[in-house]
User: Which sequence fits this backbone?
């Protein structure tokens, strides 16, 4: 299989005559993230190698020579460079200027054309973020490229500046020094970038360099990145460079792990299904979402901003969003489901992206397992806005067979209606949903558009409510309920029971949810057990959508993960395998153990042994807890701060009986019994009183300046509370009202 | 001047202060501190007068240029709504000070704006009618046509705009109109809706005013007094039963 690899070389410290380059650290970090995003396997070069010319040359040679047909290799260098005798060199770490100028052995050539010619590699790209000044030795020789024998598109160099120029550093840019060219390159290769060919990439980088430089210091002369192809290149070659997609967007067009979440932007992810990608090319959900932003970007931004602007995050920072809309304020990522599972990095990035996105779209066409798994992760960790959409001829006026756990979801349609400008219509409908979603988010304390979030958290008071249920008490089994699976289920259950007995569990309890004797709603009970059960076995057999949603949820909320198994009868062929490529990729990533009906029970012994030995707090970064750790890291910097005490009390009071009800002369109770109404009115008053006391005593709001919002609220709430108490017949209420009245006006 | 405008916020603030003065005054009156109660009501009126000053200085002249049925620009409509609210609240505070004539003046001012610009509000118009009776300035017979017109307008609005059905005061106004017109069954149904919809403490205020109206009509020997008295009893029964 063709591979895409990148070698990252950074040289930060130098000998006499070369200033140190602190920006290199950030350069390497940015390139690492950007290249992973484009599906490259990244290989950083160690300091010991980067500081020895011979070692560095050998490493680069081996990196290219090891590549085979179809492979793409990128070599990236950030450090000092020289142009001597018409050739471009990079200087290894630790070398002085004199050494670099005077000894061939103290510098490394950037022309790999001969090496590439001898190798089988398809393409080698060399990005050089280093100076090319020739002031030290002006003995230019020409013709080096003219002698080149191989077609130029197999080896391409891109320099951060043109000949005789220097590459510059942006000091303290977004908190760290970074090289101008690398910043532009990494940004264009990142989620915001759209370039796929080398010529598109170059054009964009030139533009970005110019913008960045102008913003940093308008007086500086321009720095113009270039390809070293400006001579002797036939028009045919330019044509190839224009059409060859070296950086196809896709593999993990998601935010890389650890990347900074830009709080000033709207982060959107679109997860597309495999079938609709192939059956409706050009009409995928991502196209419609793009269309929605193109046509109605300002509307989406307004709705998003209304909810998020000024909202504090858990770390105490506040999200500040510009009032006006610009396309650059949206970080939109397309995530075809197959690509999400293509490599481990891509899977990690996909998990990261669905957890962090402010706005997520899922193409639920035919409820594919990979889509459902990612949706489960999102459902478990975010109360953000999520829009589900179904294509493939289904329209909203037709019945839709929805998996059990998704029964009460609102599903949109992105099937093309037979009308003029169907794209506009679909985009409009998507935007309406987004607007309503953010509106409801702002209005409701517990807004939900996916199941599970509250079910996983509202477990009741007390430490024991969330206590882990050990494997000797329960092994939770997530599996399909269909009749054709009955044999497998019984076989698995018996196998796990037997294995548990082997482990001295006297009364093994292997239960599906419906086996648990409780009148509680299945959904409520399910999420509670998904979180609390220490041991969970997930059977992929039949690729049941509900099971994959549950699997996503489980992996996201339990550090102990899940033991995954699959009956081989259900893993291949049609309909079980359903010809979905994603299933094979998912198996590579998640590695379910396979079993055969009435086959050896060893697999269950292994499953039980694994489940019973899992100790996520003692094991070092165990694979079973990978998704849990990822989402924990992903949501930590972006989760909204828990609502403040007085605001929560006030919101509850207003939901029971809003203050303006007096003006309307009405009550908010569903039913009009006088006891019930009186009780709710009183409950609202007591909560407002508690909120006011919190403002008065905890936040000292009464002592703040008159225009302080808390002081204003203190006044307003004090009036409402005192007024309510004055109208009460309960003993002591009027005295309390008089006290509040006095404190309010002191 | 929209709701977020600082002056509008000041108006809201003054209205809030006046409402608190009213409630404080009611509580003090209940605890037999009549002097303090009256002082509190006066304080409330003063707050509302300041609110009126702000509202009128801003746009009243312009507001007056608009004729009946012409839609107001949103900023003007917001002011009209606040004027209606302020005049109505002022009338209520004056009533508590037994200043029926001044209260009537307040309600009439509010009625004028209601009719022209805020037809979904009827609080001032209903009270203007009741206080015209209470102050002895008009008889039931003289007001019959106006009451009938208001009753029909209210019934139509409530039937056509279901969202208005949530507002208890509209049902109370409809019931009062029907009681004054002698439609006891209709009044009974409207009071029932009022009690079901309203805050638990709301009906008591209506009952107090209705009792005063019945008493005044009886004093004047008005033949409609019996109907109003019967409506008072009906409302009392209903509240007592619940």
Assistant:
């Amino acid at each position: 299989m063709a591979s895409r690899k990148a070698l990252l070389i950074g040289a930060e410290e130098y000998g006499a005559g070369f200033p140190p380059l602190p920006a290199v650290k950030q350069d390497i970090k940015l390139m690492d993230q950007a290249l992973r995003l484009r599906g490259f396997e990244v290989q950083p070069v160690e300091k010991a190698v980067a500081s020895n010319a011979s070692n560095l040359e050998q490493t680069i040679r081996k990196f290219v020579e090891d590549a085979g047909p179809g492979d793409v290799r990128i070599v990236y260098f950030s450090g000092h460079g020289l142009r001597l005798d018409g050739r471009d060199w990079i200087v290894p770490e630790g070398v002085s200027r004199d050494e670099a100028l005077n000894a061939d052995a103290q510098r490394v050539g950037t022309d790999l054309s001969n090496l590439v010619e001898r190798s089988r590699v398809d393409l080698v790209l060399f990005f050089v973020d280093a100076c090319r000044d020739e002031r030290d030795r002006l003995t230019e020789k020409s013709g080096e490229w003219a002698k080149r024998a191989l077609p130029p598109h197999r080896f391409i160099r891109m320099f951060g500046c043109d000949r005789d120029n220097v590459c510059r550093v942006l000091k303290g840019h977004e908190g760290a020094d970074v090289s101008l060219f690398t910043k532009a390159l990494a940004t264009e290769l990142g989620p915001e970038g759209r370039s796929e060919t080398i010529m598109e990439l170059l054009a964009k980088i030139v533009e970005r360099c110019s913008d960045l430089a102008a913003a940093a210091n308008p007086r500086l002369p321009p720095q113009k990145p270039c390809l070293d192809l400006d001579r002797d290149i036939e028009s045919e070659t330019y044509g190839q460079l224009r059409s060859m997609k070296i950086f196809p967007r896709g593999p993990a067009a998601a935010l890389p792990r650890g990347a900074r979440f830009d709080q000033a932007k709207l982060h959107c992810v679109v997860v597309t299904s495999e079938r609709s990608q192939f059956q409706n090319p050009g009409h995928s959900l991502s196209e419609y979402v793009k269309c929605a932003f193109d046509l109605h970007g300002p509307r989406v931004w307004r709705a998003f901003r209304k909810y998020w602007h000024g909202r504090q995050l858990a770390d105490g920072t506040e999200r500040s969003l510009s009032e006006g809309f610009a396309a650059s304020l949206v970080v939109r990522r397309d995530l075809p489901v197959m690509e999400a599972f293509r490599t481990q990095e891509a899977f990690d990035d996909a998990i990261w992206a669905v957890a962090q996105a402010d706005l997520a779209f899922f193409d639920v066409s035919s409820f594919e397992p990979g889509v459902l798994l990612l949706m489960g992760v999102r459902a478990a960790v975010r109360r953000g806005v999520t829009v589900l959409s179904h294509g493939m001829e289904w329209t909203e006026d037709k019945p839709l067979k929805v998996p059990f756990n998704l029964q009460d979801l609102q599903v949109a349609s992105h099937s093309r209606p037979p009308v003029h400008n169907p794209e506009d219509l679909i985009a409009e409908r998507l935007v309406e949903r987004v607007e309503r979603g953010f509106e409801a988010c702002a209005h409701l304390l517990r807004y939900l558009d996916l199941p599970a979030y509250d079910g996983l958290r509202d477990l009741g008071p007390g430490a024991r409510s969330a206590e882990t249920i050990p494997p000797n008490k329960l092994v939770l089994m997530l599996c399909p309920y269909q009749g054709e699976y009955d044999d497998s289920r019984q076989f698995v259950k018996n196998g796990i029971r037997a294995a548990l007995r082997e482990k001295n569990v006297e009364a093994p309890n292997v239960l599906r949810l419906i086996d648990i004797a409780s009148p509680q709603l299945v959904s409520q009970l399910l999420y509670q057990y998904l979180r609390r059960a220490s041991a969970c076995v997930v059977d992929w057999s039949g690729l049941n959508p509900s099971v994959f949603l549950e699997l996503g949820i489980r992996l996201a909320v339990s550090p102990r993960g899940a033991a995954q198994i699959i009956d081989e009868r259900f893993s291949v062929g049609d309909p079980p395998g359903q010809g979905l490529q994603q299933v094979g990729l998912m198996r590579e990533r998640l590695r379910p153990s396979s079993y055969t009906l009435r086959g050896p029970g060893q697999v269950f012994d292994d499953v039980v042994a694994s489940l019973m030995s899992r100790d996520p707090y003692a094991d070092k970064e165990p694979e079973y807890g990978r998704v849990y750790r990822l989402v924990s890291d992903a949501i930590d910097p972006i989760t909204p701060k828990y609502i403040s005490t007085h605001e929560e009390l006030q919101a509850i009071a207003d939901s029971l009986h809003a203050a303006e009800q007096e003006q309307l002369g009405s009550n908010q109770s569903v039913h009009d019994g006088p006891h019930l109404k009186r009780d709710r009115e009183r409950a609202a008053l007591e909560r407002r009183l508690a909120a006011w006391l919190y403002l008065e005593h905890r936040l000292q709001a009464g002592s703040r300046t008159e225009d302080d919002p808390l002081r204003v609220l203190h006044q307003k709430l004090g009036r409402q509370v005192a007024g309510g108490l004055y109208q009460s017949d309960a003993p002591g209420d009027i005295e309390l009202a008089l006290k509040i009245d006095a404190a309010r006006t002191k | 001047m929209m709701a977020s405008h600082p002056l509008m916020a000041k108006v809201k603030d003054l209205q809030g202060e006046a409402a608190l003065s009213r409630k404080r005054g009611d509580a003090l009156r209940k605890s037999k501190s009549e002097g303090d109660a009256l002082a509190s009501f006066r304080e409330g009126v003063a707050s509302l007068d300041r609110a009126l000053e702000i509202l009128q200085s801003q746009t009243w002249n312009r507001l007056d240029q608009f004729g009946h049925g012409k839609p107001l620009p949103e900023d003007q409509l917001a002011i009209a709504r606040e004027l209606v609210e302020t005049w109505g609240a002022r009338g209520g505070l004056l009533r508590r000070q037994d200043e029926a004539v001044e209260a009537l003046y307040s309600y009439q001012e509010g009625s004028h704006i209601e009719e022209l610009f805020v037809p979904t509000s009827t609080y001032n118009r209903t009270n203007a009618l009741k206080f015209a009776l209470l102050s002895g300035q008009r008889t039931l017979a003289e007001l019959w046509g106006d009451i009938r017109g208001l009753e029909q307008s209210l019934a139509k609005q409530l039937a056509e705009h279901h969202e208005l059905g949530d507002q208890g005061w509209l049902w109370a106004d409809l019931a009062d109109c029907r009681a004054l017109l002698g439609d006891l069954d209709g009044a009974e149904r409207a009071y029932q809706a009022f009690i079901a919809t309203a805050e638990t403490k709301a009906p008591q205020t209506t009952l107090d005013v209705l009792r005063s109206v019945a008493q005044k009509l009886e004093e004047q020997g008005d033949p409609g007094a019996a109907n109003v008295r019967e409506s008072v009893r009906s409302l009392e029964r209903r509240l007592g039963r619940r």
Q: What stands out?
A: The interface with chain A takes residues 13, 16-17, 19-20, 23-24, 26-27, 31, 85, 166-170, 172, 194-202, 242 of chain B (CB under 8 Å). The mean pLDDT of chain B is 87. Chain B has ten helices and no strands.
